[in-house]
Design goal:
The protein contains 19 helices and two strands. It has helices spanning 37-41, 47-58, 64-76, 79-107, 109-132, 137-145, 153-164, 169-200, 205-222, 246-273, 280-299, 307-321, 323-331, 335-345, 349-363, 369-397, 400-403, 405-428, 430-433, and strands at 11-13, 21-23. Strands 1-2 form a two-stranded antiparallel sheet. Helix 2 (47-58) packs antiparallel against helix 9 (205-222) and helix 5 (109-132) runs antiparallel to helix 6 (137-145). The longest helix is centred in the middle third of the chain and has 32 residues, at 169-200.
Length: 438
């Protein structure tokens, strides 16, 4: 029996695109392995540099909410107050962010994002001092609202990809999937880091670290001028809010955000009830981990059908999977079981958000892309604010277990919005959607 040679043996490799690649074909001289979609993406000049800075700036987005809840609830003894303060800040951001994004489109990312970040960081530091020195409750609301000028770093990164990959919908789908996975990675690591800092050092440590990371990341990101989209000073395009299909998408974003906001507050309270406050960040991270993995896999494939047709199915899957944490909390009351349920539930999040952002990019008029994507993020933030308040109220007046019914209801509302509003609008614009990435 002939002995196998090095040319016939299976080749196992680990790449940035897949965990394991198995190649049983004979290796011939001069044969080169084709680059995966993510390797091709980051082969673009300047892509790695602006992505690194953006990831540093985006990490605090997963820290600020958890840090504020732990800091305020730990010192004031009220999750309702903590949820209301974070909801107020997010509501303020929902109002201010579109105006900030419009200025970014008009004057450029570097000129607007940096001063806006400095003002937001000052608001975070003011909140820290108010909590530290036992200021009245109204001061907490005012300080957290001052952070509303935080620029949409994820939207600015997506705008750069859209500029670099114009005319290449397949690569743009991969870029959008990577950006969503990056969001989930930041929301996976952010809560863990925030919970660790707040419990291991002092309650304000998470907010302080987040402010430093945000300013550092924006400085690095805006320094990369070669990939910055061109400035459109006097765009004649209609406002993104008036573009066909945008308003139904914002309703979907609003309800989806309520899923995220309520899940965060309720999980923190559930872990605290069982004496494991320090583990709350790790439990939340598992949900983001499931979404991150699903997002990377989604970006490496080319799903069939239009994005508009896929969105209701994604939302239906998210609604079904969001019942798992409710069942785990109600039937077992075990934190490890809940963590496993959150891991599975998170797997529907990234595909839903990637599909939503793809539609947002298609419906946003040219020259106002950052504003359009910020409107979508604004919808998410408004939903997070509502979800945080609803989750905090349910925990305070009923129980943490009952609080897991809030994200289920929010996911069902997102599905209802997509079925009743998005599909009729999309059907009237079938010719527009036919150009959408598949």
């Amino acid at each position: 029996m002939p002995q196998p040679t090095s040319r016939d043996t299976p080749l196992f490799t680990v790449t940035a695109d897949t965990l394991v690649v198995v190649d049983f074909a004979p290796r011939t001289p001069g044969r080169r392995r084709a680059k995966g979609p993510y390797r091709r993406l980051f082969a673009l000049p300047g892509a790695r540099a602006f992505t690194a800075g953006n990831l540093i700036a985006r990490l605090p987005m997963g820290m600020f909410g958890v840090s504020a809840v732990i800091m305020i609830a730990g010192t004031r003894g009220s999750y309702a107050l903590a949820g209301a303060v974070t909801a107020t800040g997010l509501a303020a951001t929902a109002v201010v962010a579109p105006w900030t994004a419009r200025l970014v489109d008009r004057y450029g990312q570097a000129r607007i994002a940096l001063p806006a970040t400095v003002f937001a960081v000052l608001g975070s530091l003011a909140l820290l001092l108010c909590v530290r020195h036992d200021a009245p409750d109204w001061a907490l609301f005012a300080c957290y609202a001052a952070t509303a000028t935080t620029p949409n770093t994820g939207g600015m990164s997506r705008a750069r990809w859209a500029h670099l990959l114009k005319g290449n919908p397949g690569a743009l789908h991969t870029a959008n999937s990577f950006e969503q996975a990056a969001d989930e990675l930041c929301f996976m690591l952010g809560p863990v880091l925030a919970a660790f800092l707040c419990t291991a050092f002092f309650p304000e440590a998470g907010t302080l670290a987040g402010a430093v990371l945000l300013l550092t990341g924006v400085l690095l990101f805006t320094a990369q001028r070669s990939t910055e989209p061109p400035v459109v000073r006097r765009s004649t395009a209609r406002a993104p809010l008036r573009a066909p299909g945008m308003r139904p998408l914002l309703l979907v974003c609003l309800a989806t955000g309520a899923v995220f906001g309520s899940m965060e507050v309720v999980t923190l309270a559930f872990a605290d009830e069982r004496g494991h406050r320090a583990a709350s960040g790790a439990v939340l991270a598992l949900q983001a981990a499931g979404s991150c993995a699903a997002g990377l896999l989604y970006g490496a494939t080319r799903p069939a059908g239009s994005a508009r047709a896929r969105l209701p199915w994604c939302l239906a899957a998210m609604t079904a999977l969001m019942t798992l944490p409710l069942l785990a909390a109600g039937l077992t009351g075990s934190l490890p079981v809940l963590a496993a349920a959150l891991l599975v539930a998170g797997m529907a999040t990234a595909p839903t958000m990637v599909t939503t952002m793809t539609l947002v990019q298609r419906y946003t008029p040219e020259g106002r892309l950052n504003e359009g994507m910020t409107l979508a993020v604004t919808g998410l933030l408004a939903g997070i604010a509502c979800g945080s308040a609803a989750g905090g109220w349910t925990v305070e007046h009923v129980s943490a277990t009952a609080g897991y019914g809030v994200p289920v209801a929010a996911a069902a509302a997102a599905l209802l919005a997509a079925v009743c509003a998005l599909v009729p609008v999309g059907s009237s614009n079938r010719s527009t959607d036919s150009r959408a990435p598949h």
